[in-house]
Design a protein that fits this description.
The chain is α/β, with parallel strands linked by helices. The chain is built from 7 helices and 13 strands. It has a single domain, classed as Class I glutamine amidotransferase (GATase) domain (Rossmann fold), CATH 3.40.50. 27% of the residues lie in helices and 21% in strands. Helix 3 (74-87) packs across helix 4. The protein is globular and about 45 Å long. The structure holds manganese (II) ion. Manganese (II) ion binds next to loops. Manganese (II) ion is lined by residues 124, 134-135, 162, 164, 181, 185, 187, 201-202.
């Protein structure tokens, strides 16, 4: 059973459960004791979890008033983890903040506050319940995301939950957008040159009971086996 490293945050239950149900063994990392180099050598895949905002100075921007920092040390730690994982072509599945970390790790930038910076009528911050459907995403045909979701007989659109106030702005090097919301907000990114490198802006792990996004976790775990 492939070991899946999970970047720590305050609410890990659903990430761990989604990994287990897809056939992986979750290993929650400890920033203080697990060096990124050792982690990358000893696991099959890397799951970057959700959380607070990436420090804007890292991608060359001044902080917006709504800036809500992640736990101390996470930015530096996760940026190094994802860079090393991609160097080693280790499978990476990056969720919400994780997708933003992936983009910044490649030199990309972020929309710091969707309600303030973008003209949209879509509410991307629907918090309760966690599985509330907030909007659809339109997936790029034949992308990794669409090929996985196709197994559930999805068309190119797919309903998702949404709990983010930030989004990918300029794409990082080698990354492509493979899903957008109807208002143009980027909802998924991929590096097609890697075995498995997928970021999604929504929270597929919250659906572990009912399996709406199980193909994403299964695809990730399958890639992490080899
Ligand atoms: Mn959204």
């Amino acid at each position: 059973m492939p070991i899946i490293a999970i970047a720590p945050n305050k609410k890990l239950h659903d990430y761990e459960e989604a990994v287990r149900r897809a056939g992986g063994e979750p290993r929650v990392l400890d920033l203080a004791t697990d060096s990124p180099a050792d982690v990358i050598r000893s696991v099959g895949g890397l799951l970057l979890s959700g959380g607070g905002d990436v420090l804007p100075s890292i991608y060359g921007a001044a902080a917006h008033p709504t800036f809500d920092a992640a736990e101390a040390g996470r930015d530096t730690y996760e940026l190094e983890l994802v860079r090393r994982a991609l160097e080693a072509d280790l499978p990476v599945f990056a969720i919400c903040r994780g997708m933003q970390v992936l983009n910044v790790a490649r030199g990309g930038t972020l929309v710091q506050d969707i309600p303030d910076e973008l003209q949209t009528t879509i509410d991307h911050a629907v918090r309760i319940p966690p599985v509330a459907i907030a909007h659809e995403v339109w997936m790029t045909p034949d992308s990794l995301l669409e090929r996985l979701m196709r197994t559930l007989e999805h068309g190119e659109d797919c309903p998702v939950n949404s709990r983010h106030h930030q989004a990918v702005k300029d794409l990082g090097e080698g990354l492509i957008a493979t899903a957008t919301a109807p208002d143009g907000v980027i909802e998924a990114i991929e590096d097609p040159s890697k075995r498995f490198c997928l970021g999604v802006q929504w929270h597929p792990e919250n659906f572990y009971r009912t399996g709406e996004f199980r193909p994403l976790f299964e695809g990730f775990i399958t890639a992490s086996r080899t």
